[in-house]
Amino acid sequence: MSRLRVSAISFLNTAPLMWDFDHGELRRKYQVEYTVPAACAEMLRQGMADIGIIPVAAYGTIPDIQVIPGIAIAAKGPVSSILLVTKVPVEEIRRVAADTSSRSSVALLKVLFANWYGASPEFVPMEPKLDRMVAECDAALLIGDPALKADTTGYEVRDLATEWVQFTGKPFVFAFWVVRKGAASAEVVRDFQASRDNGLMPQNLEKTAREWSVRLGLSEAAIISYLRDNIFYQLDAECLAGLKLFYRYAAEAGAIPGIPELTFAADPM
Fold first, then answer.
1. Which of 39, 188, 10, 49 is nearest to 102 (CA)?
2. Alpha-carbon torsion, ordered 10, 14, 19, 25, to 10 deg
3. Core-most of 2, 104, 201, 250, by most CB within 10 Å?
4. Sheet holding 156-159, edge to edge
């Protein structure tokens, strides 16, 4: 029997989710390819993957997929890795250089502008290099590891998760695992939930911090704090409520085609 193909994200914040794939038996059970969030969605859309972690904004654009229940990359406060970096007051922003590796973050920023920032800027796709981004545009949207590493001295910085929580009182969900309906099973759900649980064990967070510290040039303490305190890895009822609100706002702002209806793979519990 061929192994299920998994499209995963090559960002620090997914490391706990991938624990059993990188350090345990699941690396032999599944075929894993690492990329960026938007590319994960595209691989699923083209039938090149059976399971993928995708931006929530991409969910409604991919047919015949189900959410693996209980797992998310979310935030209930500051996330630290989704940043609007601006050299002018927010209401004066006319052009945003956008790292388009995650559709959810771009859609969230469009929602914030449409509902609270009082501006309607042009979004310019650009590599996540802050100096060039702010040289050519009024502001930059940084996502993932580039946001964690960026030197933002001298700029106004807004953490988009903080902004969302302050305006709505709800968490923000950036991404979740989905599986093709034909590949969904209780065993898959169990494997992915267990990998998340194992990755969040304190001794395993410490090992992840050691592995990623050299790669990112961040201290081990900063990495542990980020994974433990900034990222929320449960797709709980509060996160689902925040997600449904985001879908409504995003559809109204034209950031997604419409409000998708979430369907879930069978939970083994």
1. 39
2. -60
3. 104
4. 122-125, 95-98, 139-143, 82-86, 156-159
Cα angle: 213, vertex 102, 219; to 5 degrees: 15
The model's pLDDT over 80-132, given as tens digits with 9 standing for 90+, comes to 999 999 999 999 999 999 997 778 999 999 999 999 999 999 999 999 999 99
pLDDT < 50 regions, the chain: 269
Distance in angstroms (rounded) separating the CA atoms of residues 259 and 261: 7
Q: Is 115 in contact with 167 (CB distance < 8 Å)?
A: yes
Please give the Cα distance from 54 to 32 (Å, whole number).
14
Longest dimension (CA), the chain: 57
CATH of 4-74+173-252, picked from 3.40.190.10, 3.30.565.10, 3.40.30.10, 3.40.50.150, is 3.40.190.10
Dihedral angle over CA of 130, 132, 134, 138, nearest 10 = -130
Rounded to 5°, the CA angle 103-6-57 comes to 15
Q: What is the C-alpha to C-alpha distance for residues 189 and 195, in angstroms, rounded to an integer?
A: 10
Q: Which fold has domain 82-168?
A: D-Maltodextrin-Binding Protein; domain 2 (3.40.190)
Q: Please work out, in degrees rounded to the nearest 5, the angle formed at the alpha carbon of residue 215 by the alpha carbons of 103 and 132.
A: 50
> For residue 184, how far is the Cα from the chain centroid?
22
Beta-carbon neighbour count of residue 94 at 10 Å? 12
